[in-house]
Amino acid sequence: MGNNQRILSSMPDLQNDNISIHRERERMATALCCSVSAITVSSLKARNQKGFHCFHAQNPCRFNSLTFLQFNSRKLYPVQATILQDEEERVVVEESFRPKTSPEIEEEGSRGESPDTPSSSWVIKVEQSINVFLTDSVIKILDSLYHDRDYARFFVLETIARVPYFAFMSVLHMYESFGWWRRADYLKVHFAESWNEMHHLLIMEELGGNAWWFDRFLAQHIAIFYYFMTAFMYAISPRMAYHFSECVESHAFETYDKFLKAKGEELKGMPPSEVAVKYYTGDDLYLFDEFQTSRTPHSRRPKIENLYDVFMNIRDDEAEHCKTMRACQTHGNLRSPHSYPEDANEDEPGCILVEADCEGIVDCIKKSVASP
């Protein structure tokens, strides 16, 4: 009996201890919830600045696990949707130029063949690094010689700029002689590009850019060296040669653009070049449309009212050359704008000719040996 009475007398103390332990657990749980909620709030606020109010106004840390789960399920998914939407907006970027492709090229692309494999990516980087170094070196020389003589600089640029197209056609004609090449579109477009650059050169000569003997001597000898270098480069790696030409055309575009911004008002008061008027506003603009492979024929018809319009159109021509050279860097991707007549019937099957081609002289020799 004595033991039972002692046990019964100690029961209130045990109950008080249990209550205190229970309260202590509640305080620990509350503190833990507060810390978790603080971390969650900070992370969610960093993602979404809208904020939220899901806690009790009197005690913001007084909520149970069910409330916390409901908050997560209600607020977390909209934040994730916002993040995905932002990422989608960054990923979807419209290309400024989408080159036209032939049916056989589209079939090759549908097979999942990638032109830039990991094994060739470092080769492309090396080729482009060499091209950028060569271009920057020539630009520094021209800047030091022609920093205050614009027309003379343009004369040198246009003498050099048309040389690569001569080199491309020379190599392609050699391939045709051996039966390695039968893509006429390349020859048509490259000739149209050289025709365009020739008229740029005639305009600069009319403006007096070739008045000095030194300028003519420098431009012509650079052109000779540039021709053989480009022909050799094109025979080894057409992709590298096209990228180098793109670098040159890009520099020409930037040069004319700076010139227009610096002397635009002065040029607007000067009469246009007669060569420019005949070339840009003549009756026969077939070759003018031919080198602009990113445009449909007849979509660009310049107006020539003053010298500003002349240089503005020359600048735009250089931009079109850049687009064409960029398209050529993908093998077999170049198509003549006149190869897609507007009145052609798509339902007619027509006659599809197999066009022989190759990518560099090494590839040409391999295909000629392998073919029966």
Automatic annotation (TrEMBL):
Task: Give EC number(s), comma-separated.
Answer: 1.10.3.11
Q: Which cofactor does it need?
A: Fe cation
Reactions catalysed, semicolon-separated, are: 2 a ubiquinol + O2 = 2 a ubiquinone + 2 H2O
| Transmembrane helix as UniProt keyword | yes
Top-level taxon in the UniProt lineage:
Eukaryota
Q: Which residues cross the membrane?
A: 154-175, 217-236
Where does this one sit in the cell?
A: Membrane
Compositional bias (Basic and acidic residues): 94-114
- Give yes or no: UniProt keyword rRNA-binding: no
Tell me the segments the record calls region Disordered: 94-120
Gene Ontology CC, one term: respiratory chain complex
Q: Which UniProt keywords apply?
A: Electron transport, Iron, Membrane, Metal-binding, Oxidoreductase, Respiratory chain, Transmembrane, Transmembrane helix, Transport
Biological process annotations from GO? alternative respiration; carotenoid biosynthetic process
Checking InterPro entries in the record gives: AOX (IPR002680), AOX_sf (IPR038659)
Q: Which Pfam families does this UniProt record tie to the protein?
A: AOX
The top EC class is: oxidoreductase
Q: Which residues form the signal peptide?
A: none
Cofactor: how bound? Binds 2 iron ions per subunit.
The primary site where this protein sits is membrane
The family assignment reads: Belongs to the alternative oxidase family.
Name of the molecule in the record: Ubiquinol oxidase
The organism encoding this protein is Cephalotus follicularis
Q: What is the lineage of its organism?
A: Eukaryota, Viridiplantae, Streptophyta, Embryophyta, Tracheophyta
